[in-house]
Amino acid sequence: MPLFNVVSSPPFQAILIENWNAPPHRFFLAYRALGDFRHVLGLPVVDEYATFSTPIFFGPISLLGQFYNVGITLGHNRDPEMGIDQGWPPICVGIRTEQQPEQGWEDKLLNAIKNSKWNPPAATPEPQIQVFQAPDVDVYATNVPLLPRQLKRICQIRPAPLSIAFSTGNRITPQKGKLLQIEAASEQVLEQLIHKFSTAISGS
């Protein structure tokens, strides 16, 4: 069962873990950028909290600022306040592509995301993984509850210019006067995941 849905509106793609207007939440995420890879917007929350709220956008480097604005618009449509639990800031990755968008691509991308009906798979004790690749970018996802430092280990599987890893195992929701319950996998489970990801990425 896939852990996320990839919405396509060429030459753009977006990773959705849930429907775009799901209740407020975040998930743990880590990334690693090598060399001079700078074609990413929306990482301040990741740098400070190691979390994100979906979706993650991919599109031409030359249009990075414009589809970042699409992500901002989507967040405002979700909630005018657009807090970090509701789509701010959108993570947008510029990729190398010669494909050019059609006129009105902003609305087409927004509509593709809004019309995508995607609900997360039912919880299962079985470890699951999913890999997404774009030019110069590897994305690793798992349902195993991993902490940010463990996700950093996943990002080191191979030297892609940009590696992103996230876990759906801990769904971080706004808490009022309550302690947030966070789970973490053992070192043995993490090593098994790294092997699974390595096998998947080498066979892709």
Order of helices and strands: EEEEHEEHEHEEHEH
The number of helical runs is 5
State the total count of DSSP E strands. Answer: 10
What are the segments in which pLDDT stays under 50 over at least 5 consecutive residues? none
Largest sheet: 5 strands, mixed
Mean pLDDT: 92
Give the fraction of residues assigned to helices. 25-40%
Shape by Cα distribution: globular
Q: Beta-strand level of the residues, as a percent range? A: 15-25%
Strand order of the largest sheet: 1-2-6-7-4
- Termini separation comes to 18 Å
Radius of gyration: 16 Å
Structural classification: alpha+beta
List the helices and strands and how they pair.
Blueprint: E1 5-9, E2 12-16, E3 27-33, E4 40-41, H1 44-49, E5 51-52, E6 56-60, H2 64-78, E7 91-95, H3 105-114, E8 129-134, E9 137-142, H4 148-155, E10 162-167, H5 187-202
Parallel strand pairs: 6-7, 9-10
Antiparallel strand pairs: 1-2, 2-6, 3-5, 3-10, 4-7, 8-9
Give a written overview of the molecule.
This protein has 204 residues and is α+β, with helices and mostly antiparallel strands. The strands form two sheets. A five-stranded mixed β-sheet has the order 1-2-6-7-4, covered by helices on one side. A five-stranded mixed β-sheet has the order 5-3-10-9-8. Helix 2 crosses helix 3.
